Amino acid sequence: MRQSCISPSNFAVISSLSSCAGYIYNGNLQEAMDCVWLMIHSGQIMDCCTFSIILNACASVAALERGMELHAFGIRSHLESDVVVESALVDMYSKCGRVDYASKLFNSMTQRNEFSWNSMIYGYARHGLGRKAIEIFEEMLRSRESPDHVTFVIVLSACIHAGLVERGLEYFEMMPDHGILPQIEHYSCVIDLLGRACKIDKIKEYIQRMPIEPNALIWRTCHLSTFVQLF
Description:
Strand content: under 5%
Helix content: over 70%
CATH architecture of the largest domain: Alpha Horseshoe
Low-confidence stretches: 1-11, 227-231
Number of domains: 2
Number of strands: 0
CATH topology of the largest domain: Serine Threonine Protein Phosphatase 5, Tetratricopeptide repeat
Number of helices: 14
Shape: elongated
Oligomer: single chain
Pfam families: PPR, PPR_2
Order of helices and strands: HHHHHHHHHHHHHH
Mean pLDDT: 82
Keywords: Kinase, Repeat, Transferase, Transit peptide
Organism: Zea mays (Maize)
PPR repeats: 82-112, 113-147, 148-182
Radius of gyration: 21 Å
GO biological process, one term: RNA modification
Protein backbone atom coordinates (compact mmCIF):
# COMPACT_ATOMS: atom_id res chain seq x y z
CA MET A 1 0.00 0.00 0.00
CA ARG A 2 1.41 3.36 -1.01
CA GLN A 3 1.81 5.80 1.87
CA SER A 4 0.90 9.46 1.59
CA CYS A 5 3.84 11.85 1.56
CA ILE A 6 1.74 14.44 3.41
CA SER A 7 2.15 14.34 7.17
CA PRO A 8 -0.78 14.80 9.59
CA SER A 9 0.56 18.24 10.50
CA ASN A 10 0.59 19.23 6.83
CA PHE A 11 -2.96 17.96 6.45
CA ALA A 12 -3.95 20.27 9.31
CA VAL A 13 -2.32 23.24 7.60
CA ILE A 14 -3.97 22.43 4.26
CA SER A 15 -7.36 22.03 5.93
CA SER A 16 -7.02 25.30 7.84
CA LEU A 17 -5.84 27.14 4.73
CA SER A 18 -8.74 25.84 2.65
CA SER A 19 -11.23 26.87 5.31
CA CYS A 20 -9.67 30.32 5.67
CA ALA A 21 -9.55 31.05 1.94
CA GLY A 22 -13.13 29.83 1.55
CA TYR A 23 -14.34 32.15 4.30
CA ILE A 24 -12.60 35.16 2.75
CA TYR A 25 -13.80 34.52 -0.79
CA ASN A 26 -17.36 34.27 0.53
CA GLY A 27 -17.05 37.51 2.48
CA ASN A 28 -17.05 35.86 5.91
CA LEU A 29 -14.12 37.93 7.12
CA GLN A 30 -14.47 37.43 10.85
CA GLU A 31 -14.60 33.65 10.44
CA ALA A 32 -11.56 33.83 8.17
CA MET A 33 -9.53 35.81 10.67
CA ASP A 34 -10.62 33.46 13.47
CA CYS A 35 -9.27 30.65 11.32
CA VAL A 36 -5.98 32.49 10.78
CA TRP A 37 -5.54 33.23 14.47
CA LEU A 38 -6.34 29.60 15.28
CA MET A 39 -3.55 28.54 12.93
CA ILE A 40 -1.18 30.99 14.57
CA HIS A 41 -2.00 30.19 18.19
CA SER A 42 -2.10 26.43 17.64
CA GLY A 43 1.50 26.60 16.48
CA GLN A 44 0.80 25.69 12.86
CA ILE A 45 3.53 26.93 10.58
CA MET A 46 2.35 29.45 8.01
CA ASP A 47 4.84 29.48 5.16
CA CYS A 48 5.22 32.16 2.50
CA CYS A 49 2.94 30.36 0.06
CA THR A 50 0.15 29.94 2.61
CA PHE A 51 0.50 33.53 3.76
CA SER A 52 0.37 34.85 0.18
CA ILE A 53 -2.77 32.89 -0.65
CA ILE A 54 -4.56 34.40 2.34
CA LEU A 55 -3.37 37.90 1.38
CA ASN A 56 -4.62 37.38 -2.17
CA ALA A 57 -8.00 36.35 -0.81
CA CYS A 58 -8.11 39.55 1.29
CA ALA A 59 -7.25 41.56 -1.82
CA SER A 60 -10.08 39.96 -3.79
CA VAL A 61 -12.68 41.35 -1.37
CA ALA A 62 -10.79 44.58 -0.51
CA ALA A 63 -10.47 43.59 3.15
CA LEU A 64 -7.96 46.29 4.09
CA GLU A 65 -8.15 46.04 7.88
CA ARG A 66 -7.74 42.26 7.82
CA GLY A 67 -4.93 42.53 5.31
CA MET A 68 -3.12 45.00 7.54
CA GLU A 69 -3.48 42.62 10.48
CA LEU A 70 -1.93 39.88 8.37
CA HIS A 71 0.85 42.24 7.29
CA ALA A 72 1.69 42.86 10.94
CA PHE A 73 1.76 39.12 11.58
CA GLY A 74 4.02 38.65 8.54
CA ILE A 75 6.49 41.16 9.92
CA ARG A 76 6.55 39.43 13.31
CA SER A 77 7.01 36.06 11.60
CA HIS A 78 9.81 37.32 9.31
CA LEU A 79 7.78 36.47 6.21
CA GLU A 80 7.68 39.97 4.75
CA SER A 81 11.07 39.82 3.02
CA ASP A 82 9.99 37.01 0.66
CA VAL A 83 9.34 38.31 -2.87
CA VAL A 84 6.09 36.34 -3.18
CA VAL A 85 4.78 37.77 0.09
CA GLU A 86 5.93 41.30 -0.75
CA SER A 87 4.20 41.07 -4.13
CA ALA A 88 1.00 39.82 -2.49
CA LEU A 89 1.14 42.75 -0.06
CA VAL A 90 1.57 45.24 -2.92
CA ASP A 91 -1.43 43.65 -4.64
CA MET A 92 -3.52 43.69 -1.47
CA TYR A 93 -2.85 47.35 -0.70
CA SER A 94 -3.39 48.36 -4.34
CA LYS A 95 -6.76 46.63 -4.53
CA CYS A 96 -7.80 47.95 -1.13
CA GLY A 97 -7.23 51.56 -2.18
CA ARG A 98 -4.02 52.26 -0.28
CA VAL A 99 -1.77 52.93 -3.24
CA ASP A 100 0.52 54.91 -0.94
CA TYR A 101 1.22 51.81 1.16
CA ALA A 102 1.60 49.68 -1.97
CA SER A 103 4.07 52.17 -3.45
CA LYS A 104 6.14 52.29 -0.28
CA LEU A 105 6.40 48.50 -0.21
CA PHE A 106 7.11 48.30 -3.93
CA ASN A 107 9.90 50.86 -3.74
CA SER A 108 11.50 49.01 -0.82
CA MET A 109 11.60 45.65 -2.62
CA THR A 110 15.10 44.41 -3.42
CA GLN A 111 13.69 41.83 -5.82
CA ARG A 112 10.57 42.07 -7.98
CA ASN A 113 8.70 39.62 -10.12
CA GLU A 114 6.11 39.98 -12.87
CA PHE A 115 3.29 39.98 -10.32
CA SER A 116 4.96 42.80 -8.34
CA TRP A 117 5.13 45.04 -11.39
CA ASN A 118 1.61 44.25 -12.57
CA SER A 119 0.16 44.87 -9.12
CA MET A 120 1.79 48.29 -8.80
CA ILE A 121 0.85 49.36 -12.33
CA TYR A 122 -2.71 48.16 -11.71
CA GLY A 123 -2.90 50.02 -8.40
CA TYR A 124 -2.05 53.35 -9.99
CA ALA A 125 -4.24 52.75 -13.05
CA ARG A 126 -7.25 51.67 -11.00
CA HIS A 127 -7.16 54.74 -8.81
CA GLY A 128 -6.93 57.32 -11.58
CA LEU A 129 -3.16 57.76 -11.60
CA GLY A 130 -2.64 56.75 -15.21
CA ARG A 131 0.55 58.70 -15.79
CA LYS A 132 2.11 57.19 -12.67
CA ALA A 133 1.11 53.73 -13.89
CA ILE A 134 2.89 54.45 -17.16
CA GLU A 135 6.00 55.60 -15.29
CA ILE A 136 6.13 52.25 -13.50
CA PHE A 137 5.62 50.41 -16.79
CA GLU A 138 8.50 52.32 -18.35
CA GLU A 139 10.63 51.47 -15.32
CA MET A 140 9.65 47.82 -15.79
CA LEU A 141 10.87 47.91 -19.38
CA ARG A 142 14.15 49.51 -18.35
CA SER A 143 14.66 46.80 -15.74
CA ARG A 144 14.38 44.21 -18.54
CA GLU A 145 11.47 42.49 -16.81
CA SER A 146 9.23 41.05 -19.51
CA PRO A 147 5.63 42.32 -19.48
CA ASP A 148 2.88 39.79 -20.11
CA HIS A 149 -0.56 40.10 -21.71
CA VAL A 150 -2.03 41.25 -18.38
CA THR A 151 0.56 44.03 -18.12
CA PHE A 152 -0.50 45.39 -21.49
CA VAL A 153 -4.21 45.33 -20.63
CA ILE A 154 -3.43 47.33 -17.49
CA VAL A 155 -1.16 49.86 -19.16
CA LEU A 156 -3.53 50.35 -22.10
CA SER A 157 -6.32 51.02 -19.60
CA ALA A 158 -4.05 53.56 -17.90
CA CYS A 159 -3.53 55.30 -21.24
CA ILE A 160 -7.30 55.40 -21.77
CA HIS A 161 -7.93 57.17 -18.48
CA ALA A 162 -4.96 59.51 -18.92
CA GLY A 163 -6.03 60.39 -22.47
CA LEU A 164 -2.66 59.32 -23.90
CA VAL A 165 -3.74 58.12 -27.33
CA GLU A 166 -0.38 58.02 -29.12
CA ARG A 167 1.37 56.46 -26.14
CA GLY A 168 -1.31 53.78 -25.94
CA LEU A 169 -0.99 52.96 -29.65
CA GLU A 170 2.79 52.80 -29.25
CA TYR A 171 2.44 50.26 -26.43
CA PHE A 172 -0.06 48.22 -28.45
CA GLU A 173 2.30 48.06 -31.41
CA MET A 174 5.23 46.95 -29.24
CA MET A 175 3.43 43.85 -27.96
CA PRO A 176 4.84 41.49 -30.64
CA ASP A 177 8.34 42.69 -29.68
CA HIS A 178 7.72 41.02 -26.32
CA GLY A 179 6.38 37.84 -27.88
CA ILE A 180 2.73 38.71 -27.20
CA LEU A 181 0.03 38.67 -29.85
CA PRO A 182 -2.77 41.14 -29.09
CA GLN A 183 -5.97 39.46 -27.94
CA ILE A 184 -9.55 40.65 -27.97
CA GLU A 185 -9.14 42.51 -24.66
CA HIS A 186 -6.17 44.47 -26.04
CA TYR A 187 -8.09 45.47 -29.16
CA SER A 188 -10.99 46.50 -26.94
CA CYS A 189 -8.69 48.82 -25.00
CA VAL A 190 -7.31 50.38 -28.19
CA ILE A 191 -10.79 50.91 -29.62
CA ASP A 192 -11.89 52.52 -26.35
CA LEU A 193 -8.80 54.73 -26.43
CA LEU A 194 -9.52 55.84 -30.00
CA GLY A 195 -13.23 56.25 -29.39
CA ARG A 196 -12.67 58.67 -26.54
CA ALA A 197 -10.43 60.69 -28.86
CA CYS A 198 -13.11 60.60 -31.62
CA LYS A 199 -10.71 58.91 -34.05
CA ILE A 200 -13.40 57.07 -35.99
CA ASP A 201 -11.28 56.14 -39.02
CA LYS A 202 -8.63 54.64 -36.75
CA ILE A 203 -11.26 52.52 -35.00
CA LYS A 204 -12.30 51.03 -38.34
CA GLU A 205 -8.64 50.38 -39.20
CA TYR A 206 -7.94 48.49 -35.98
CA ILE A 207 -11.13 46.43 -36.21
CA GLN A 208 -10.19 45.40 -39.74
CA ARG A 209 -6.73 44.40 -38.50
CA MET A 210 -8.13 42.01 -35.91
CA PRO A 211 -7.14 38.38 -36.56
CA ILE A 212 -10.53 37.20 -35.27
CA GLU A 213 -14.10 38.33 -35.74
CA PRO A 214 -15.14 41.18 -33.43
CA ASN A 215 -17.23 39.91 -30.55
CA ALA A 216 -19.76 41.53 -28.21
CA LEU A 217 -16.97 43.11 -26.16
CA ILE A 218 -15.65 44.95 -29.21
CA TRP A 219 -19.08 46.13 -30.33
CA ARG A 220 -19.96 47.32 -26.85
CA THR A 221 -16.71 49.25 -26.75
CA CYS A 222 -17.49 50.79 -30.10
CA HIS A 223 -20.94 51.83 -28.94
CA LEU A 224 -22.51 50.02 -31.88
CA SER A 225 -25.37 52.46 -32.18
CA THR A 226 -22.89 55.23 -33.02
CA PHE A 227 -20.44 53.41 -35.26
CA VAL A 228 -22.59 50.88 -37.12
CA GLN A 229 -22.73 53.12 -40.20
CA LEU A 230 -19.03 52.57 -40.73
CA PHE A 231 -19.65 49.00 -41.76
